[in-house]
Design a protein that fits this description.
Layout: H1 2-11, E1 26-28, E2 39-41, E3 44-46, E4 51-58, E5 64-73, E6 81-83, E7 112-116, E8 122-126, H2 127-130, E9 132-134, E10 144-146, E11 153-156, E12 161-163, E13 173-174, E14 179-185, E15 192-199, H3 206-228, H4 235-260, H5 266-298, H6 303-306, H7 309-337
Parallel strand pairs: 6-9, 7-11
Antiparallel strand pairs: 1-5, 2-3, 4-5, 7-8, 10-15, 11-12, 12-13, 14-15
GO molecular function: G protein-coupled peptide receptor activity
Keywords: Cell membrane, Disulfide bond, G-protein coupled receptor, Glycoprotein, Membrane, Receptor, Signal, Transducer, Transmembrane, Transmembrane helix
Subcellular location: Cell membrane
Length: 362
C-alpha cells in the first residue's frame, strides 16, 4: 500500500525536464505549488510537465557538479529570461565562484534595459516587470570581466547579451552560460546600475609560459655566443645582439604578464604595456637596420669603407631608439587623449591596459 502511494506521488515528478536546457530552468519550492500541481514563479505559471527534479548543476565549461536534489521548472520556455549572478541582496565575490552574504539593498535600480526582439525591433523594457529573472543558476566562473555602465549592451530575445563595443560579429554575443547580471552600487554614488559580468575566456597559460622561458634561454645563449666570439662582433653581429636583447625584454614582459597579471595595479599594467611596445618597435627597427646594412654591403659601394663601424652603429642606434620612442609616445598621447568609455573613440585607441597589459590587437 505504502509502495503504491509512493509510486503515485513520484508519477507527477519528472527527472530532467525533456527538451529543456538547464540554463532555461529556475529553482522551485513547495510554497510556490498550486492546487492543480502547477507552480507560480514571479508572474508566470509553470505547468507540471515543465518541472523536474535535479541533483546536479551545470557549470560554464559544460561539466556537471553534484548538488542536493531539488525541483526546477522550465520557465524560459514561457518567456524571455534574464540571468542574475546572485540571489537578492547578494553580490559576486571578486575572483571567487560564489556570492557574498546579505548586504545592503541593491534592488533599487532603474531596471530599464535595451531589448532586441528576434525580428530586429528594439525597445526599452523594465527587467523586474517584463522578464523572467533567474537568480539561482550557479555562478558561471571565478574570473569575471565587469562591463562598466557607460558601455552599451543589449539583451536579445533568446537571452543572449550583445556588446556594442565589440566589432567582430563572431564574438559580440555571450550566451547565458557565459554571463550573468549584477546590480552594482558605484563608489560615492547613490545610483545602482545593472552591470553585465562575463567570464574570461579560459586559457591554459603554462604552455605559453614554458615556450617563453625556452625562447628567453635560447636568446640569451645566442647573445653569449655572439659576444664571446670575436669574429661575430662585427657591425651585423652587434646589431643582431641588440635585436636579441629587445626580444628578451619583450618575452620577459610577456612572461611577467602571464604570471602576475591578476596581482598588478592598473598603472603597473600600463607601464609594462608601454615598455613592451617600445621593445617591440625597437626589435623591428633593428631588423630593418640589419637588412639595410646588408643591402648596402651587397651593392659593392664604398659605404663600408667611408664610414667606421662605430659611426654607423651610432647612427643606427639613434634612428632605432628615437623612432621606437616616438611611436611609443604617440600611442601614449592617443590613449591619454581619447575616452575609453566612448564607444566611438574606443576603436581608435591603442588600448594599453584596457583589455590587457598590451596594445590591443583587435
Amino acid at each position: 500500500m505504502w509502495l503504491l502511494l509512493f509510486m503515485v506521488a513520484l508519477s507527477g515528478i519528472n527527472a530532467d525536464i525533456p527538451n529543456c536546457d538547464y540554463y532555461d530552468t529556475v529553482r522551485l519550492s513547495e510554497d510556490q505549488k498550486l492546487l492543480n500541481g502547477s507552480y507560480k514563479y514571479q508572474n508566470i505559471i509553470i505547468p507540471p510537465e515543465l518541472t523536474g527534479e535535479y541533483d546536479y548543476e551545470i557549470r560554464m565549461d559544460g561539466d556537471s557538479e553534484k548538488v542536493s536534489r531539488h525541483l526546477r521548472g522550465c520557465a524560459c520556455r514561457l518567456g524571455t529570461c534574464i540571468r542574475y549572478c546572485c540571489p537578492k541582496n547578494q553580490k559576486l565575490v571578486v575572483e571567487e565562484r560564489r556570492c557574498s552574504e546579505d548586504i545592503q539593498d541593491l534592488d533599487d535600480f532603474d531596471g530599464l534595459v535595451d531589448f532586441v526582439w528576434t525580428n530586429g525591433t528594439e525597445m526599452k523594457i523594465h527587467v523586474p516587470d517584463d522578464l523572467i529573472i533567474q537568480r539561482d543558476l550557479p555562478v558561471p566562473c571565478s574570473e569575471h570581466i565587469s562591463i562598466i555602465a557607460d558601455y552599451k549592451w543589449k539583451l536579445l530575445e533568446n537571452g543572449n547579451i550583445a556588446y556594442l563595443f565589440v566589432s567582430d560579429n563572431s564574438s559580440n554575443q555571450r550566451s547565458k552560460n557565459q554571463y550573468c547580471l549584477q546590480p552594482q552600487r558605484f563608489d560615492n554614488e547613490s545610483r545602482v546600475e545593472l552591470i553585465p559580468q562575463f567570464c574570461e575566456d579560459p586559457q591554459t597559460i603554462w604552455p605559453t609560459i614554458t615556450l617563453l622561458i625556452l625562447s628567453i634561454v635560447c636568446s640569451v645563449l645566442t647573445i653569449a655566443v655572439y659576444m664571446g666570439l670575436p669574429k661575430l662582433r662585427n657591425l651585423h653581429g652587434i646589431c643582431f645582439i641588440c635585436y636579441l636583447f629587445m626580444l628578451v625584454v619583450t618575452f620577459l614582459l610577456l612572461l611577467l604578464i602571464n604570471i602576475y597579471n591578476s596581482f598588478m595595479s592598473e598603472n603597473q599594467c600600463k607601464a609594462i604595456g608601454y615598455v613592451g611596445y617600445f621593445a617591440e618597435m625597437s626589435r623591428f627597427h633593428w631588423l630593418s637596420v640589419i637588412s639595410f646594412d646588408l643591402w648596402k654591403s651587397f651593392r659593392g659601394t664604398n659605404y663600408n669603407e667611408d664610414y667606421t663601424i662605430a659611426y654607423r652603429f651610432t647612427i643606427y642606434s639613434i634612428i632605432v631608439w628615437t623612432s621606437a620612442a616616438a611611436l611609443t609616445l604617440i600611442i601614449f598621447i592617443i590613449d591619454s587623449t581619447l575616452d575609453p568609455n566612448d564607444i566611438d573613440q574606443l576603436p581608435w585607441m591603442p588600448g594599453v591596459g584596457i583589455y590587457s597589459c598590451w596594445v590591443k590587437s583587435e
